[in-house]
Design brief:
Blueprint lengths: L2 E10 L2 E11 L4 E5 L6 H8 L7 E6 L2 E3 L4 H6 L2 E4 L11 H5 L14 H14 L15 H13 L5 E5 L7 H16 L3 E5 L3 H7 L2 E6 L2 E7 L5 H9 L17 E11 L6 E11 L3 E6 L5 H8 L8 E6 L2 E2 L6 H7 L1 E4 L3 H5 L6 H6 L7 E2 L2 E2 L1 H14 L16 H13 L5 E5 L7 H16 L3 E5 L3 H7 L2 E6 L2 E7 L5 H8 L4
Parallel strand pairs: 3-8, 3-9, 6-7, 7-8, 13-20, 13-21, 16-19, 19-20
Antiparallel strand pairs: 1-2, 1-4, 4-5, 9-10, 11-12, 11-14, 14-15, 17-18, 21-22
Protein name: D-xylose ABC transporter ATP-binding protein
Keywords: ATP-binding, Cell membrane, Membrane, Nucleotide-binding, Repeat, Sugar transport, Translocase, Transport
Pfam families: ABC_tran
């Protein structure tokens, strides 16, 4: 065994995140690490990768007892980790991020930028990605940044590579490129610990599985000996009832109309959005699908007033013609809310508690003469914690310590507290487990049933089929086709999402 964890326990503020966990990871195998958000997967990997040096139990690496004091210790011993949450320096360039801490120098001690760029270009080519290596990563999309995280891990030959939801924000073609890389790593004898909630990926790649639940080991075994339903039941500790799509309850009353929306690219002679036209009715869930770079996020950000540069076209909101919103404050004031794709960077203040995060969007309604009404804030928080079934010790718990599903619920609560007429959600279930996904779907349906117009951008077609009444497909900043969900097929949608040859 290349890695053996013996009776590992870890607590935070007296609460067990891991309790007496023992797992063996064999060399040259792909091992899927599975569990709901909050099951202890990330804590376990943070111990293995040196992020958490304090824990009970023993870690054996290549037969020797070790206790890494920092991530660099684990890296130097041949353990690499690809974090789901981006771990990049925004103002540094692509190549600088890839080589951060492992810079190459010339004989004279200067940075060997030519060699670093050549290596970075080859790494990104393996991932089917072409980028300006000198561009700061702050200018890149989430999916592109995730591929840079993967490239960083591939820079140094490792005996163990941990991948935490590596496909949560990348396109289908890039997923297949990653599959090839994982198979190459396995063939070379590298152990891959693969954390994912996507069952298709697990059954495609994994040799073995490990299931955690509530910080404890449920079972470890061969992937060929189980099916998807058995794994899900192990994860949640109960049979997961099938959720059926609620019948469409849309009205004919349009709450939002966009006609010929166009937006030029800020840096090159191209269109980010090109004559986009669509309408949204009250009580309707409108799904938007497209490959990376299709313009889906740019569309939501433009409607929400985040793009700054004035957009061309006509806009009608809640029955009134109006210019496109110039700021998020204006959008929220008028009744348009956006749950962003990257919840940790754009939706939450991780160092603040649940109550403070939830009330951020409505502080002006909770103050009198500049003084925050503490009782009203607490009541508001409790209302949405109960309504959205947010699992937290109390409203003073730091939001950064919550599971991904509960963090997403806090973001959702923050914007529902503004009482929007239209709710837009960008990849609302990225990186959360199968049970939490179902809860988010139910919450989205509840808002539509209450009369909200809802727009959902997702890269997962099964998700859109499960919740959307109608589907739009985007490619190269344009809407290429519209479908009624019950009449759509995956093949037809993917064909509409592909650029013209």
């Amino acid at each position: 065994m290349v890695v053996s964890l013996k009776n590992i326990s870890k607590t935070f503020n007296g609460v067990y995140a891991l309790r007496d966990v023992s797992i063996d990871f064999p060399a040259g195998k792909v091992v899927a690490l599975i569990g709901e958000n909050g099951a202890g997967k990330s804590t376990l990997m943070n111990i293995l990768s040196g992020v958490y040096p304090d824990y009970e139990g023993e870690l054996l690496y290549k037969g020797k007892s070790v206790r890494f004091q920092r991530p660099r210790d684990a890296q130097d011993q041949g353990i690499a980790i690809i974090h789901q949450e981006l771990n990049l320096i925004p103002h540094l360039s692509v190549v600088e991020n890839i080589f951060l801490g492992r810079e190459l120098v010339t004989t004279w001690g200067a940075l060997d930028r030519t060699e670093m760029k050549a290596i970075a270009k080859k790494l990104l080519a393996r991932l089917k990605l072409t980028l300006n290596l000198d561009a700061p990563v702050s200018q890149l999309k989430v999916g592109e940044c995730q591929l840079i995280e993967i490239a960083k891990a591939l820079l140094v030959e490792s005996d163990v590579v941990i991948m935490d939801e590596p496909t949560s924000a990348i396109s289908e073609s890039e997923v297949y490129a990653l599959y090839d890389i994982i198979r190459d790593l396995k063939a070379s004898g590298t152990t891959v610990i693969y954390i994912s909630h996507k069952m298709k990926e697990i059954f495609t790649l994994a040799d073995e599985y490990v299931v955690l639940r509530d910080g404890q080991l449920v079972r470890q075994g061969q992937i060929a000996e189980v099916d998807e339903q058995q794994l899900v039941n192990m994860m949640v500790g109960r049979a997961l009832g099938e959720r059926t799509k609620c019948p469409c309850r849309t009205t004919e009353e349009k709450v939002l109309q966009v006609h010929n929306l166009s937006l030029t690219h800020p840096e090159k002679d191209a269109m980010l959005l090109d004559q986009v036209s669509f309408a949204l009715c009250k009580g309707e869930i409108l799904g938007i699908f497209g490959l990376m770079g299709a313009g889906r996020t740019e569309l939501l950000e433009t409607l929400f007033g985040l793009r700054g540069k004035p957009a061309l076209g006509d806009f009608t909101f809640d029955g009134e013609g109006t210019p496109f919103f110039s700021s998020p404050n204006e959008a929220l004031r008028c009744g348009l809310a956006l749950v962003p794709e990257d919840r940790k960077s754009d939706g939450l203040v991780l160092g603040m508690d649940v109550r403070s995060n939830l009330s951020l969007s409505v502080l002006s309604s909770l103050e009198t003469l500049g003084v925050l009404a503490d009782v009203q804030e607490k009541e508001l928080c409790q209302q949405y914690v109960d309504r959205l079934r947010i699992k937290a010790a109390n409203d003073q718990q730091q939001v950064g310590s919550l599971s991904g599903g509960n963090q997403q619920k806090v973001v959702l609560a923050k914007y529902l507290a503004t009482h929007p007429k239209v709710l837009m959600l960008d990849e609302p279930t990225r990186g959360i487990d199968v049970y939490a996904k179902g809860e988010i779907y139910d919450l989205i349906r509840e808002q539509a049933t209450a009369g909200l117009g809802v727009i959902v951008v997702s890269s997962e077609l099964p998700e859109l089929f499960a919740i959307a009444d109608r589907l739009l497909v985007m490619c190269d900043g344009r809407i290429t086709q519209e479908f009624k969900t019950e009449e759509a097929t995956e093949e037809a949608i993917l064909q509409a999402a592909l650029p013209d040859k």
